[in-house]
Design goal:
Layout lengths: L2 H22 L22 E7 L14 H11 L3 E5 L3 H11 L3 E4 L15 E4 L3 E10 L18 E9 L5 E8 L5 H16 L6 E6 L7 H9 L3 E2 L27 E5 L3 E8 L15 E7 L1
Parallel strand pairs: 1-2, 7-8
Antiparallel strand pairs: 1-12, 2-4, 3-4, 5-6, 6-7, 8-10, 9-10, 11-12
Helix pairs in contact: 2-3, 4-5
């Protein structure tokens, strides 16, 4: 077969795949996954939702106190409408409130007493743009309304949620945020069910879920979400996306498949773009996870 014929067939196949992608919405990741990615300019027409595990302890030689400035800077520069944080200890919450409190307010409680002990899975939101209509926290356990361990979990785990209303347009959306257990297999499975049950309570409202799920994409727990048809992974909900690890432990080249952080949405949202923010600040890792965000619009 001649080289010109092979080239022609290749072009035809590529065009055919592109057509299928446009028809069926197959997400095509950006091919260069080594790019240093910062925050892109936020369009006025979109909402930006971020998930950010800020790490409760050291990242390399940087303690959590050493990183207060760069974590706060990252959150402010994101311009996100709302941010779900994980591993936010009471010390972190006090520091963040002091550093970004002029722009962001938050909802959430400490997981170990329902007040201010233990890590928060708080939701920060633009306080000049949104009113809190309703909010709460439940435990990922057999007794979600009580401070409790769930099943085989090593830690108490929670989901914090908030209904936010745009002060100007009156549009509302729900943000759920969580951090799944790193040990309990049964706990993670049942945690998915609890999250899906909560998301299903708001069938008439746009819902977004952010989390460090401690499981990789394609795992059984991940499939529980995407097969439910209740929530979709924004990474695969748009062609303007990227494929890169979200957990790096300061060794990103060794963790190229470690996607354990997610932004998911229900059918009231369309996804415009999905990003993993790999840039850091002044050459420093802001956490052992990269922040991730999705730009989305209410249908």
């Amino acid at each position: 077969m001649s080289s010109s014929l092979i080239s022609g067939l290749g072009a035809i196949l590529m065009a055919f795949f592109t057509l299928l992608s446009s028809i069926f919405g197959i997400a095509q990741s950006k091919p260069d996954t080594t790019v240093i990615q910062g925050f892109e300019a936020k369009e006025e027409s979109v909402m930006r939702i971020m998930s950010f595990n800020i790490r409760c302890a050291n990242v390399g030689s940087d303690s959590w106190e050493d990183r207060i400035g760069i974590v706060s800077q990252t959150m402010l520069e994101s311009e996100a409408d709302s941010i779900g944080v994980q591993e936010a200890t009471p010390g972190w919450m006090a520091a963040l409130n002091e550093n970004i409190g002029d722009k962001y307010a938050y909802v959430g409680v400490g997981r170990d007493d329902g007040d201010n002990e233990g890590e928060y899975s708080a939701v920060f939101y633009l306080k000049d743009k949104y009113n809190v209509v309703d909010s709460g926290t439940f435990w990922l356990s057999e007794t979600p309304d009580k401070v409790s361990f769930g099943w085989d979990a090593a830690c108490r785990r929670v989901c914090t949620w908030v209904v936010l209303e745009n002060k100007e347009s009156g549009e509302k959306y729900v943000h759920l945020n969580s951090h799944f257990d790193h040990v309990g297999v049964t706990a993670r499975k049942n945690s998915v069910d609890l999250i899906l049950d909560k998301a299903s309570e708001y069938k008439d409202l746009p819902v977004v879920f952010t989390a460090d799920m401690n499981v990789v994409q394609g795992s059984d727990n991940y499939k529980q979400f995407v097969n439910s048809k209740i929530l979709r992974d924004t990474k695969f909900d748009t062609t303007d996306t990227m494929d890169y690890c979200t957990y790096h432990d300061t060794k990103p080249s060794l963790h190229t498949d470690d996607v354990i952080d997610y932004v998911m949405v229900n059918n009231h949202f369309d996804t415009v773009s999905y990003r993993v923010v790999t840039e850091g600040v002044d050459g420093r890792f802001v956490s052992d996870h990269y922040p991730i965000y999705a730009d989305i619009v209410i249908k």
